[in-house]
Amino acid sequence: KENNNIFVDDLKEEGEKRPIPNPCRTFLEAFELYPEIMENIERVGFVKPTPIQSQAWPVLLSGEDLIAIAQTGTGKTLAYLLPGFIHMDVRFLFISFICVPRDEQGGPGMLVLTPTRELALQIETECKKYRYKSYKSICIYGGGDRRGQINLVKSGVDIVIATPGRLNDLQMNELISLRSITYLVLDEADRMLDMGFEPQIMKILLDIRPDRQTVMTSATWPTGVRRLSKSYLKNPIMVYVGTLDL
Ligand code: ADP
Ligand code: MG
Fold first, then answer.
1. Measured from the CB, is residue 223 less than 6 Å from ligand 1?
2. What count of other Cβ atoms lies within 10 Å of the Cβ of residue 125?
3. Closest C-alpha to 18, from 54, 51, 57, 65
4. pLDDT (tens digit, 9 = 90+) per residue, 53-110?
5. Which residues form the Helicase ATP-binding domain (predicted)?
6. Are 185 and 123 in contact (CB under 8 A)?
7. CA nearest 187: which of 141, 152, 148?
8. What is the per-residue pLDDT for 51?
9. I want to staple 159 with a disulfide (CB 3.0 to 4.6 A). Which of 41, 110, 168, 231 is the partner?
10. Residue 40 CB partners (closer than 8 Å, separation 6+)
């Protein structure tokens, strides 16, 4: 019951469980093939991956869905952002052949849903700090300048960071298309549920292609979050840090 223990579980049935990728002990083990990402990490001066990152990166880079449960401040943002950037690259090869119809290839590829405006802005700051290639990110949240957000969407974006309420508003009014999204993050799922965002999340998810990669993060693992993960993730691997009542 030590607090920094890390656990990994394949949520598939007994007998169908996959081999779980080894955790990375260094940044290089995860991002050797991506010098631009290595440079950004070195510039910021981090010494080593946090426990959740060391297990999340190999899982996400192998293309699997992931549930990451760990307390606030454990580095979950980079745990999903960096593999997301890499996904954006691979996606261009993938979508032009089979995945996304030609007329939908121009839209955003990555969506992060998060409960509050403050979190959305923080995530966007991280996104810019680790800017990868020329991917354009925008923040969509309630109370913000709606017209400005709509114009930014129109000008073309790759990464959308949004609170569910405002994104659902733009979606319902056909001011944003979500059909090109292939990497989806449900960040702080427990807080989004506590804030009553489940109906908006449901409607947003109706427009997102089922053959996406999905990540869910949460600080806790209550019934509501389990239900959400069952509905929206495909054979996820679960990584959790600390102790958990399962
Ligand atoms: P969480 O989403 O789990 O609450 P954050 O992703 O916001 O946590 O990260 C908390 C802080 O830790 C941020 O300031 C972030 O820059 C920093 N951080 C992230 N990864 C590392 C790392 N590998 N080493 C040191 N600090 C890190
Ligand atoms: Mg976070």
1. no
2. 14
3. 65
4. 999 999 999 999 999 999 999 999 999 999 999 999 887 666 555 555 555 557 899 9
5. 57-239
6. no
7. 141
8. 93
9. 110
10. 129, 130, 131, 132
**CB of 7 sitting under 6 A from ligand 1:** no
Q: Is residue 133 very low, low, confident or very high in pLDDT (cuts 50, 70, 90)?
A: confident
Looking at ligand 1, which atom is closest to the CA of residue 47? Answer: 24
Determine the pLDDT at residue 131: 80
pLDDT value at 175 more than 90: yes
Q: How far is the CA of 75 from the centre of ligand 1 (A)?
A: 3
Ligand 1: nearest atom to the Cα of 27: 23
Question: What count of other Cβ atoms lies within 10 Å of the Cβ of residue 126?
Answer: 15
Query: CA-to-CA distance for 48 and 57, rounded, in angstroms?
Result: 13
